[in-house]
Amino acid sequence: MSAGSIPSGDQIKDPGYPTASENYLTNSKGALSWLFTLDHKRIGVMYLIGVMTAFFAAGLLALLIRLHLFRPDGAVFTGPEANNWYNQVFTLHGAIMVFLFIIPSIPAALGNFLVPVMLGAKDVAFPRLNLSSFYLWVFGAIFFVGALMASGLDTGWTFYTPYSTTTDTSVILATSGAFILGFSSIFTGLNFIVTINTMRPPGMTWFRMPLFLWATYATSIIQVLATPVLGITLLLLIAERVMHIGIFDPEFNGDPVTFQHFFWFYSHPAVYIMILPAFGVISDLISVHSHKRIFGYRFIAYSSIAIALLGFLVWGHHMFTAGMGPMTTIIFSALTFTVSVPSAIKVFNWLATMYKGSISLTTPMCFAIAFIFLFTIGGLTGLHLGTLATDMHLHDTYFVVAHFHYVMVGGTLVSFLGALFHWWPKMFGKMYSETGGRLAAVIIFLGFNLTFLPQFVLGSRGMPRRYATYDPEFQTLHQISTIGTLLLGVGLLVALFVLLRSLVKGERAPANPWGGATLEWQCTSPPPFYNFERPPAVGDPYDFSDIFWDTENERYVTVEPDRKIAPAEQPEPAHAEGTH
Amino acid sequence: MSTIEAAAENAHDAHGHDHDHPSFLAHHFDTPEQQFDSGKLGIWLFLVTEILFFSGMFCAYAIFRMLRPDVFEGCSQFLNTKLGAINTGVLLFSSLTMAWAVRCSQVKQDRGLVAMLAATLSCAMIFLGVKAIEYSHKWEMGLLPAGLYFYDPANPHPESHTNYLFYICLPFMILLGGVVAWLVVSLATRNKFHVQCAMPLTVAAACFFVGIGLGMVLESGGSEHAADEYQAHATTELEQTAAIQLVSSGESEVLESLATESNTGIQSELSARQRQLENAGTAIVQEGDEIAGAIVSVEENVMTQRKAGVFFSIYYCMTGVHAIHILVGIGFLVWLLVRAVRQDFNPQYFGPVDYVGLYWHLVDLIWIYLFPLLYLIR
Hints:
The complex is a heterodimer. By secondary structure, chain A is an all-alpha fold. Chain A has helices at residues 31-35, 40-68, 82-119, 127-150, 163-166, 171-198, 211-243, 256-290, 297-310, 326-354, 363-386, 388-394, 398-428, 434-460, 475-505; strands at 11-13, 430-431, 507-508, 547-550, 555-560. In chain A, strands 1-5-4 form a 3-stranded antiparallel beta sheet, with no helix packed on it. A two-stranded antiparallel sheet of chain A has the order 2-3. Chain A is globular. Chain B is globular, with a radius of gyration of 25 Å.
């Protein structure tokens, strides 16, 4: 990459701006043209609206939890039912965040928009299946809200038996919702795997794919392989409640630990469904905004696959205290440590990419740097929990809560926001206020740490999770945490305001505002409904050498040496090598 | 592969929807090969998810079999091997006809394709019919999942039971009535397309009752000693003799009429009586002395709600989810049949038949595992 003037005498390649009839947002009008669209970009935007709504609802629930914990005896919910209310609120916070926001956030919302465009394809392989995934998601969400309206849900998002088979709350509605959401997730994953395998244009070899696609591919593998097990587990749980099949329910000679095994066989890989796409996002963000080739491309690509596969072998570390044999726990503990290797490879590669890069501290880059910081804390505290001896003390304390919030919020949410700010100009064709975006990133970073760092201390001092009240000695730390939550909320609102304001007042976005070399920057902002007029020329996704800053028009452009094409003899297009 | 071929054709304007794009080729694909490859990979991935879906139940089976082998051995005596075997045969045959259907679609034999799809559908219906017999008899005896279990060895056939078989058959009767009406109307209006669709569907719907009849015959025809004992008891079950005669004559129509009338569950009743006698301490002299002894000793410990219930839970979960898959498969087969009558498929476009075929083989394969695991291992 190079800043500065464009070499003279060269050809400038820039797609310009789309016309209203090309722009995917405006090429057809009316609500029905959105509700029945088969365009992956519109489906992605609908997902985006959906997951943001879910995030908003679950975020408010989180705020309620934290406000309640402001005082040792509970500040929000009062009366004899106070603790039940608290149980329902934290269950719904967890369940909505996991099933409705984090799992579909990057893969379904951004993945749908980006995968075909980054790949250079016209659409995903099965557009109708794609739309039905979205509607399955909507129906699943309705079931969840139905559970909330009916009689609440107080099992925790894990639905552990035997409590979930005996509680009076609407477990069946909620698990049906999760079951449907599971199928939505499976079909999205299946669609992406097939798309990446069969829809690549000529020249797009596996190792010319942007790392976001590698991460999406790894995520999709997990979605396809793990989610069906959750499906059958929830189905058996429903059967257990309806007719007491005696598989999980000890009252009928069943085994509750079997439920935990089944559940975590899905839900641990699901943790990687949540974080792997974030890795992909960060790989692209760091490289583009450092204007430097990604360091160790193949290592990052392979480590995504490695995490996907290793993720299937470590579910037992959620159950160290559930009564497994000592040998089993030791094996699961050792396997857990192996996951840290590919994760660390990624972090080191990102740092090496930034090293001697020409870093632009844009909003997406601020989020990406925040991600590295927060994810490192989240990952390293995971080692405390993967170690048997310390886990015995830390299990089910606030340490665990802080750990997975560092990974899920500090990791996935922050990278989701980074990705949103990075691709926002591409999605909606508008530039947002950089100052406002950076301000949001800083407030979110500070608010997040203020919320969850004290929880590590709380947990190591013995504060158990999921309690509605606590000893007065923990009050100061809890109060710091609650104040942090408010700050975090303000930061998120600022981010929302900045993005929404850009839709109204933002400047028109150029095709390539950041200087990215992946294919989505080669089509207009927003992309035309057909993505590419003809299969795009595929180059190295991290080669920034021919991308220059055009000071006059405030955009990045790709520059090609003025080539003369011999008449009547067109060169053959580069063929994909080993496309399958 | 497909992308390379696509490359050659991509010289022209790629998103031109009108020219050079056959009607069956979706706009975002470049070649029929690419479309077929995508679909094939998609269906294989879907089958992987199906296997993992069932794997949860296979795991549950393995865990509980390991924990309580005696329960599984004792309870699987209650499953009728003959009915299981005939269903295995029916499904295997349907896999053959399905594979044949795929071949027909590849070589554009439209009549053969319709015939083979109809044969596959009929087999699916027979399977469900036999399954209905199995289920209804177990429900009547109270051999149910743990929470609903009420089997009492001393009184295996409680008097006031619901006629479960009738309720299972009801939707299929309505279905049969519906397709027959459709057939009659389309014959009357001489709509060729509708006749061609309704005819095979009528046959398939009727096959459910063939399955019911077959199940009854096999269940009552029983093993030799059971039949002997039956004659010794000389109860006045005329349907039984009628059924035995039917086996030799093999007339499906009569079976059908029998199916709606009789709901005897003779064999399970006989075996239940036998156990009653054993419980009362009366030794029954027969060939399988040792086995009978084993049953007696097992039974005392095993046939309780807490123990046997778990076996039947797993039995119903596995076969029930499998039956749901058969129902879904029937839906797909009907869809294919209508399209086959419409002559949608050709050597360039036979993907849907191929994909449904793969799905059907998987459903078949899962049964191949369920049958020995639940019925045979004792």
